[in-house]
Write a structure and sequence with these properties.
Layout: H1 3-16, H2 20-28, H3 37-53, H4 57-70, H5 74-90, H6 94-106, H7 112-124, H8 128-141, H9 146-158, H10 163-172
Helix pairs in contact: 1-2, 1-3, 2-3, 3-4, 4-5, 5-6, 5-7, 6-7, 7-8, 7-9, 8-9, 9-10
Length: 173
């Protein structure tokens, strides 16, 4: 096994053990001279995830974008776009989050998680009706989704759109 691959495997092992700081050190020490493009994308993926877990979001964006633009693994691209959206929401860049999530939805990657995150991004931009629509779409996909129920309830109560329904949503979760 090449030295770089051994470091990559150790970094992945440490990541899975939730030792993100140690995983990051190991991954940053990987010698990529003999790496294939696929191995470089795998390294970027784990670096992006480690930086996300360590809340070093600007560093994470750099690596996650590499995975997204590689076009190689659709499920990994989905996960990275969701992670990018999460980072954008956390760092108060809701329009960027919305962009990532809409790209996923337009490509057929619908999920309750996607719509609850879109709803939160809409709420953060004070697009309350749109937030309600997204929470309702999430509930169409998963009628017991507690994040969607709580979010919908909050928006309905906080904006006085439908206080009784909002309270029922919160109670139901």
């Amino acid at each position: 096994m090449a030295e770089g691959q051994g470091n990559l495997n150790e970094g992945i092992r440490l990541y899975r053990l939730k030792r993100w700081d140690l995983a990051l050190v190991e991954l940053l020490g990987v010698n990529t001279e003999s790496f294939s493009p696929e191995e470089n994308i795998e390294l970027a993926y784990y670096l992006g995830l480690c930086y996300t877990k360590l809340e070093r979001y600007d560093d994470a964006l750099l690596y996650l974008e590499q995975v997204v633009t590689s076009g190689q693994d659709l499920l990994r691209i989905y996960q990275c776009r969701m992670t990018l959206a999460y980072i954008y929401v956390i760092t108060k860049r809701s329009k960027m989050a919305e962009f990532e999530l809409k790209r996923l939805a337009n490509n057929g990657f619908e999920s309750a998680q996607l719509y609850t995150t879109l709803a939160y991004a809409a709420w953060a931009q004070k697009h309350y009706k749109q937030a309600v629509d997204y929470y309702e779409k999430a509930l169409e996909l998963d009628d017991g989704n507690t994040t969607a129920l709580n979010g919908l309830g909050f928006v309905l109560v906080d904006t006085d759109m439908d206080v009784l329904r909002g309270l029922r949503c919160c109670k139901r979760r």
